[in-house]
Amino acid sequence: MSFPNPQIKLTVDAVVFGYEAGNISVLLIQRKYDPFKGKWALPGGFVLEEESLEEAVERELREETGVAINYLEQLYTFGGVNRDPRGRVVSVAYFGLIHPDGHTLEASTDAEAAKWFDINDLPQLSFDHSHILDMAIERLKGKITYEPIGFELLDTKFPFSDLEKLYSTLLGRPVDRRNFRKKINSLKILDELDEKISLGAGRPASLFRFNETRYKQLQKEGIIFEI
Amino acid sequence: MSFPNPQIKLTVDAVVFGYEAGNISVLLIQRKYDPFKGKWALPGGFVLEEESLEEAVERELREETGVAINYLEQLYTFGGVNRDPRGRVVSVAYFGLIHPDGHTLEASTDAEAAKWFDINDLPQLSFDHSHILDMAIERLKGKITYEPIGFELLDTKFPFSDLEKLYSTLLGRPVDRRNFRKKINSLKILDELDEKISLGAGRPASLFRFNETRYKQLQKEGIIFEI
């Protein structure tokens, strides 16, 4: 059988979520070239022949936004026949979580600009990127029920209320404070530090740190984490 | 910017699981052409320019095995640089569940033969297909903890013990019969029929049927289903 030659191109796209002060944001770029020149889009681009999909998405993210992430999870592959005006382009979408504070944005190559957008206040997106983003948001909300998310999104040291706020933001509803603390304690996922922080008028609050070993173990076990 | 032209080809592969009499099997084909001529592999092949990924995987499955499935779920996209000796080939793998009884196998096009193999007694597989299959088995085992799997795998009418056996097979351990029945009852997912079946020496057992409406609703909600 001959090696076929359909003109299908392959891209990767990255949905990178950030969390800060009770808001979830997503990293977008402004396109420098047509199609959709000047419009906002997910960072991403064509896969080169000699790189893996993971290498491609990390490279595109670095080039277009200046952000370096060493862990992106595969989300889904979008292969609709008419999703790109240039021809048949199939895109493998990836999904990552970071704390925006630690990353300086710097657009180059195909991106005119790179910017964080609150997921509740998004511009119109290019291609089928709003569909990809919707699926990533669903995945993020689903994940917090079976994985102890947070490590990538919070500061290294944080008061317990930050973790609680993250969950209530992701769930879109308040969490029962007492049950939440009980649940987190039972997972033995946090180490309480000797440091405290002053938050408003109340007593100074203890700072916590994720226990990375324990956290990775729970992630691997895929524990059920009902809040 | 010009439209790039890396020589990356796109394929789809299907991991179709069947369940019968306490055994989980997977549908494989014997390759008619090189590479791996005469070896076993997952059904699949190159995506055509004018078809979606879903259309491609359904077509390949039909052509190579005679099996028609109208629901396949995307599993993962495998894009390692050296996974195909012919060049750079990225494959989008899909995953489906059927009851083998209702399907007659008929190999054609690129397949010399199509056959069910017990997942505990597999031949050597072509390409990285054993890696793809391993991931599909993990997914299947994971799914039963948060979805009421079974609808696609069991007969239309079945004794309760069949469902219990399916779960214990997938989990690889016995299930606590009493708690399992209680859990299933609380989900209101089964309708008990007026028919009975004789199984061995005991009293005839009632037959059940999945309540499709309720089942699809629970699937959509992505319920936590701890057994």
UniProtKB/TrEMBL annotation, chains A, B:
Span of domain Nudix hydrolase: 7-141
CDD domains per UniProt: NUDIX_NadM_like
Annotated PROSITE patterns: NUDIX (PS51462), NUDIX_BOX (PS00893)
UniProt keyword list: Hydrolase
Pfam families in UniProt: NUDIX, WHD_NrtR
InterPro entries, sorted: Nudix_hydrolase (IPR020476), NUDIX_hydrolase-like_dom_sf (IPR015797), NUDIX_hydrolase_CS (IPR020084), NUDIX_hydrolase_dom (IPR000086), WH-like_DNA-bd_sf (IPR036388), WH_DNA-bd_sf (IPR036390), WHD_NrtR (IPR054105)
Chain segments annotated as coiled-coil in the UniProt record: none
Family: Belongs to the Nudix hydrolase family.
Protein known as: 8-oxo-dGTP diphosphatase
Species assigned in the record: Nonlabens dokdonensis
Lineage: Bacteria, Pseudomonadati, Bacteroidota, Flavobacteriia, Flavobacteriales
